[in-house]
Amino acid sequence: MAVVATYASSRTNQIGTSELFIKSYDFDPDATTATDIAWVDMAKYEYIVMSFCRTVGVSDLTMKVIANTDSDGGGTDDYVIKAVTLAAQPDAVGDNVFVEVHADEIAHAAAKAGVALRYVSLSLAVATGTDEGICTYVAKAKNAAEDTTADAVSA
């Protein structure tokens, strides 16, 4: 008879979720114009990795990371931090593409523009408005802070 051992951890916080912010967002634009996915305050993060995973459709994707002075992207201008040139289009279900932005890139853009940029969002546009996907953000905290990532489940 095999014995299965379980380990009872005394750890009250988890390393990954205390150092990383991880969140996925549904991308269903019903449009071909650029859609801002979600705004993240980069003041407490060292870098952020953003991904797009195709779930519906095959059309071309335009991908960039934009920054703004306002937490909801409502500032007067969106500043392009990084425009992504895709080596190949994510044109099949399950295809993934990634972009990474570091805090120093945002600081450089802010200094150049003369504004206080600290909020970033992935901005996507598809050639066919019925295309869909899932976007995931993973940001690394400058300092470990308990509960950076928490479960988010609707009732």
Q: What do these coordinates show?
A:
The chain is mainly beta and 155 residues long. It has one domain (22-141): Jelly Rolls (Sandwich). Helices cover 10% and strands 41% of the residues. It contains 2 helices and 9 strands; from the N terminus they run H-E-E-E-E-E-E-E-H-E-E. The protein has helices at residues 15-19, 103-113, and strands at residues 20-27, 35-36, 40-41, 45-56, 61-68, 79-84, 96-102, 119-126, 132-141. Strands 2, 3, 5, 6 and 8 form a 5-stranded antiparallel beta sheet that branches. The longest helix is centred in the last third of the chain and has 11 residues, at 103-113. The termini are far apart. The model has no long low-confidence stretch (mean pLDDT 88).
List the helices and strands and how they pair.
Layout: H1 15-19, E1 20-27, E2 35-36, E3 40-41, E4 45-56, E5 61-68, E6 79-84, E7 96-102, H2 103-113, E8 119-126, E9 132-141
Antiparallel strand pairs: 1-9, 2-8, 3-8, 4-7, 4-9, 5-6, 5-8
Question: What would the keywords be for this entry?
Answer:
5-stranded antiparallel beta sheet; mainly beta; 9 strands; 4-stranded antiparallel beta sheet; 10% helix; 155 residues; Jelly Rolls
Characterize the largest beta sheet: strand count, sense, and whether it forms a barrel.
Answer: 5 strands, antiparallel
| Structure classification | mainly beta
Low-pLDDT stretches: none
Span from first to last CA? 42 Å
Query: Oligomeric status of the shown chains?
Result: single chain
* CATH fold field value: Jelly Rolls
Number of strands: 9
